[in-house]
Specification:
By secondary structure, the chain is mostly beta strands. It has helices spanning about 95-105, 155-160, 200-205, and strands at about 5-20, 30-35, 40-55, 65-80, 80-95, 110, 115-120, 125-135, 135-145, 150, 165-170, 175-180, 185-195, 220-230, 235. The chain has three helices and 15 strands. Strand 11 (about 165-170) and strand 12 form a beta hairpin. The two termini are about 30 Å apart.
Length: about 240
């Protein structure tokens, strides 16, 4: 049985190219940074986490909620093949129990903050808004997209961003947690406008404050799907 089953829907993905040296100390043991066309990416993502079940059980009042996270990309060579995965610098959700479970069992970096969202389908476009409160201020991802979804092209940057099927969390210099995330290939909505307002220093500290001055390399909206998160395993060097 999968540890967790759910749906990840309407994933707003804002992507930046940064100096890989900034991430070196966050790279889990046994993995290395994964590059697309020689570039190192971080992605700021907002989405809906829905129909959540842990070990097949629904947790009352915790089945549907928002999440925003900042992540980067790594890979691990095992049994003659590369496993491509993501490392989460920090995740924000509005439910304390979610933070507790993820941090306790998977060594994640969840925080609990007030959040809200609004998703609208207009005649000719779609609108996605995710908000979270830090102190007295609200941050937001707010984008508009075309009405109809399109395929994610093979070999594209969007494919690189979405096609990472493992999660890696650093435990120590010699130990890493690995877990598999299973989902079908996603489709995307093309973004036509971005009205996001994110205080990266307030959300992620001085280390990542510089992102506010960067122009996103790309922004797209992945439609999402049902997902499963499998049981973790420990990698020891």
């Amino acid at each position: 049985m999968s540890f967790l089953t759910a749906e990840w829907n309407n994933l707003a993905m804002i992507n930046y190219v940064i100096d890989p040296k900034i991430l070196e100390k966050n790279v889990p043991a046994g993995t290395e940074l994964d590059f697309f066309e020689g570039k190192c990416y971080v992605s700021f993502i907002g989405f809906m986490f829905e129909n959540v079940r842990v070990l097949g059980l629904k947790i009352p009042f915790h089945s549907d909620f928002e999440e925003v996270n900042l992540r980067f990309y790594v890979r691990r060579f095992e049994n003659g093949m590369w496993k491509r995965g993501a490392v989460f610098i920090s995740e924000i959700v509005p439910k304390f129990a979610v933070s507790f479970i993820a941090n306790t069992f998977y060594n994640e970096h969840y925080r609990t903050q007030p959040m809200k969202h609004e998703i609208k389908a207009h005649d000719n476009f779609r609108e996605f808004n995710y908000e979270w409160k830090m102190g007295s201020d609200w941050n937001r991802i707010h984008i508009e997209t075309e009405k109809d979804s399109i395929e994610i092209e093979p070999g594209s940057e969007a494919e690189f961003i979405t096609e990472h099927y493992y999660g890696y969390n650093r435990v120590s210099d010699e130990k890493t947690i690995e877990y598999e995330v299973k989902h079908p290939r996603w489709r995307q909505y093309k973004v036509t406008a971005n009205h996001s307002e994110i205080d990266f220093e307030a959300v992620y500290g001085k280390e990542f404050a510089f992102i506010k001055d960067l122009k996103p390399t790309s922004i797209f909206l992945a439609v999402g799907s049902k997902i499963t998160i499998e049981e973790k395993k420990e990698i020891k060097l």
